[in-house]
Design a protein that fits this description.
heterotrimer, A mainly alpha (about 60), B mainly alpha (about 300), C mainly alpha (about 475), A: about 60 residues, about 55% helix, C: about 475 residues, mainly alpha, Cytochrome C Oxidase, Chain A, two-stranded antiparallel sheet, 17 helices
Chain lengths: ~60, ~300, ~475
């Protein structure tokens, strides 16, 4: 039986092989920037926020 | 030339392994070496052989598929279940049993919430307590005796302390006894101070029932009684797991209590050693402050009074 | 001389085994979905929800998922390496051992032997079996790749290598247990640490069983079945490295608001959100690949499976990270939302891509065509509808549960007792069972189609042999 062995060259487009869609790049960098913000805002050692403190706040009301 | 890696499978595997190990090291391996991952509350005790046997059954029956064992520090969650979970409560939990789904309620604060009898009856027939519960019945655990040697080897594997009496005391006990013993030890090591801040013991504002004798209140009270109280205090307050409400003994002493005492007991529950009107409670009554509003509690009292008159 | 035929039969063996375990897993899934609203369907001790749920998850993740991964990876690796497997006999032994292990796994879980760590429930003797299975697999895959007759390794091989390496690390570390007899053991780690190790494993089991292997299939079979080349090599590279890097940081998003140190939760949430980017890298790459010729969605029945599959992957990887955010986790964690999320991934993404790969492979092995495209289309729409009913119903249930648990009266007391919030789920749980039944019927169409294709293929090869003689 003839096996259909793969020709790797035919798997990937040539002319668009180095393209990165702009929308996707915005997403990629946007998430990294947001991640830095979130890390700073929600790490007790940096911002002082903690889930326990947030709870104490919530029951004072 | 970076492209070479895509031609060298071994190199590729090594580089991928390093890449996955970075996050692993930062979030898992390194914290593991620090004390923050190994806290222990002062009054936390290792499981006894009977409790461990119960925990093994909890694992075997997959209870953690429907019940969590961690209360999140969120206002309504603390109101519903009690004090939020502390890292130091779980030092003897191999493995942790926090679960990931609440088909049934959280069990982090189930220990000592109800008397043993409540659990025996509830395991045997959950629908006798909650008609629409979807929990499987576990009555079949009764009469399945424990294997003391087996449990001893489990205690040894975990290096938990035990005495020869602990082990010999296991013969004659069954799986249901063990499971109930485990239920009663879950989450009791945490100190209650913070919990009482979140949930202060409330004193009744009125010394007497403002809804006393009100027919509508009695009807509402009857409905609430059947849904919340009857499983322990029996039909028409005759007593069952909990004491009778129609005899003249309250908190183990002769003589009735006043309306406001009734209110406080229903609202706050009882705990061992709690003193109400000079009488000492033994605990076992859960608090209903989060399930019933004030007028509902008064309605239940109106209903109980109507039973006592009969 | 091994001329692929022998290896193809091994591949077929894995595919049929995985379909068999899939049927078992799905039927048990239906059963436990009924137990949710009809407790009398619990038959103690073996057939209670607590025991059967783990048979369902393990049966499908390991029986269907890993079985299909073994078979399909062998298939892909041979073709991308342009040579038969390096150790054909070992692969056949692997197939037998796999089925023996899954059989024992199912029986032991029914018997209640359970380590109580999600997706790592199997007791320690079986863990050792699983490690042996994985080593056998790794030896054959690496051996075949090293001895390949094609210089470059295609993207699918990257994902295959990453899967083989990661699963080995994850499985071994999380299954470090203290044995207490042959049928019982205790996690080496305790409390918060145990939780942290388990979810590092648990989430990455999702990552390296339900994500990277399926992407390996997607990147291979999409161009093969459509004839359209993958849009951007560069996008593939960035997506690959960022997904395997970021995944391992994210496990603690399962432990938001637990006593686990806040900073670990925060780091996990950050990396979880970041995962949207590499996940959508593959989604975008898939869409742009088919973009030059959307008519393939109509003319080539497999394109539908792959494109819908990658679409659900895209939705899954948006929904999942969002769930990790504290504000969302507060509401939906511990509710039915989560099974809704999981089932979109498994029924929408994983199953779609796996069945499409099988539809591609089986006729190829027999050098024939699929038995009926019409039945394949029926199958497609049934599993799509079944899955949507299931997931959407569960999301609504989850939001409702979360809201009811939080609801308070004007005087600050809780509005609902737990049982009151439970009762309101019942009609949604009926709907879920209905969705499951529709999905199951769809899968029966698939099985029938594959079975008939094999029959047709066998008849064809018999004719060919006759002809030669």
């Amino acid at each position: 039986m003839a096996e259909d062995l793969d020709n790797i060259a035919s798997f990937e487009a040539k002319e668009t092989s180095r393209k990165l869609p702009v929308g996707w790049l915005i997403l990629f960098w946007g998430l990294i920037i947001w991640g830095i913000y979130y890390f700073v805002a929600y790490t007790p050692a940096i911002s002082g926020w903690s889930q326990e403190k947030a709870y104490e706040e919530s029951i004072k009301k | 030339m970076a492209g070479a890696i895509y031609r060298k499978p071994i190199l590729f595997a090594i580089v991928s392994a390093i890449v996955i190990l970075i996050g692993t090291a930062v979030t898992m391996f390194i914290p593991m070496l620090t004390p923050q991952m190994h806290p222990k509350l002062e009054n936390l005790k290792p499981f006894t052989p009977l409790q461990l046997a119960g925990r093994d059954i909890y694992q075997r029956e997959g209870c953690n598929n429907c019940h969590t064992q961690t209360v999140r520090p969120l206002k309504t969650e603390v109101m519903r279940y009690g004090e939020y979970s502390k890292a130091g409560e779980f030092a003897y939990d191999h493995p942790f049993l926090w679960g990931s789904k609440r088909t049934g309620p959280d069990l982090a604060r189930i220990g000592k919430k109800y008397p043993d009898m409540w659990h025996y009856k509830h395991f045997e027939d959950p629908r006798a307590f909650f008609a629409e519960s979807n929990m499987p019945s576990y009555g079949w655990l009764k009469g399945r005796s424990l294997d003391p040697e087996d449990i001893k080897s489990h205690m040894d594997a975990l290096s938990f302390p035990y005495t020869a009496d602990d082990i010999s005391g296991l013969s004659g006990k069954d799986e249901m006894d063990a499971l109930v013993a485990y239920m009663q030890v879950i989450g009791i090591a945490v100190t209650k101070t913070a919990a009482s801040e979140a949930k202060p013991r409330v004193k009744a504002e009125e010394p007497e029932n403002p809804l006393a004798g009100d027919q509508k209140a009695i009807e509402l009270g009857e409905e609430l009684y059947e849904g919340n109280c009857e499983m322990c205090h029996g039909e028409h307050g005759k007593g069952d797991i909990g004491p009778s409400l129609v005899d003249n003994i309250f908190l183990y002493e002769e003589g009735d209590l006043a309306d406001d005492d009734y209110f406080e007991i229903i609202n706050n529950g009882t705990s061992e050693g709690m003193v109400e009107e000079g009488r000492t409670a033994k605990g076992g009554m859960p608090s209903f402050s989060d399930q019933m509003q004030k007028n509902e509690i008064w309605s239940v009292i109106s209903y109980i009074r109507s039973l006592q008159k009969k | 001389m091994n001329d692929y035929q022998y290896d193809n039969q091994t591949v077929r063996g894995f595919i049929i085994s995985s379909i068999f375990w899939g049927v078992v897993g799905i039927l048990i899934g239906l059963w436990i979905s009924i137990q949710m609203w009809a407790p009398s369907w619990n038959i103690a001790p073996y057939f209670t929800f607590g025991r059967m749920r783990v048979v369902h998850t393990n049966g499908l993740a390991f029986g269907l998922g890993i079985g299909a991964i073994f078979g399909i990876f062998y298939y892909i690796t041979m073709r991308l390496s342009r040579r038969p497997l390096l150790f054909p006999k070992l692969a056949r032994f692997h197939l037998y051992l796999f089925n023996a292990a899954i059989t024992l796994a199912a029986l032991s879980l029914f018997a209640g032997m359970n380590q109580s760590l999600e997706y790592a429930e199997l007791e320690w003797p079986l863990d050792i079996g699983v490690v042996i299975l994985w080593v056998i697999f790794a030896v054959n895959i690496f051996g075949t790749i090293i001895k390949r007759k094609e210089e470059q390794m295609y993207i699918s091989l990257w994902f295959i290598i990453a899967t083989v390496v990661s699963v080995a690390v994850l499985y071994i570390v999380n299954n470090l247990f203290i044995p207490a007899g042959l049928f019982k053991s205790y996690h080496l780690f305790a409390g918060v640490n145990s939780a942290n190790v388990e979810w590092w494993y648990g989430h990455n089991a999702v990552g390296f069983i339900f994500t990277t292997p399926i992407l390996a299939m997607f990147y291979y079979f999409l161009p093969k079945s459509t004839g359209l080349p993958i849009f951007s090599h560069r996008l593939s590279i960035i997506s690959f490295w960022s997904i395997v890097f970021a995944y391992l940081w994210t496990g603690a998003h399962h432990l938001v608001y637990t006593p686990l140190p806040n900073w670990i939760q925060t780091v996990a949430i950050v990396f979880t959100m970041f995962l949207i980017a590499p996940s959508w890298g593959s989604v975008v790459n898939g869409f742009y690949t088919v973009a030059p010729d959307w008519s393939k969605m109509r003319t080539n029945y497999l394109t539908k499976f792959f494109i819908l599959g990658i679409t659900f992957y895209g939705l899954q990887t948006l929904q999942g990270p969002t769930q990790g955010l504290r504000v969302v986790s507060q509401l939906i964690h511990y509710t039915d939302w989560v099974p809704g999320h999981v089932h979109m991934g498994t029924m929408g993404w994983v199953t779609m891509v796996v069945v499409a790969s099988v539809y591609y492979i089986i006729p190829k092995i027999y050098d024939t065509e699929i038995y009926s495209e019409k039945i394949a289309n029926m199958h497609f729409y049934l599993v799509l509808i079944g899955q949507l009913i299931f997931s959407i119903t569960m999301w609504i249930t989850g939001i409702q549960q979360g809201a009811l648990w939080k609801a308070v009266n004007p005087d600050g007391t809780l509005k609902y007792t737990f049982i009151e919030t439970l009762v309101k789920n019942y009609h949604f749980w009926h709907m879920r069972t209905l969705g499951g039944i529709i999905f199951t019927v769809g899968m029966l169409f698939f099985i029938y189609n594959i079975f008939m294709t094999i029959r047709k293929g066998k008849a064809l090869s018999a004719i060919k042999r006759e002809g030669v003689r």
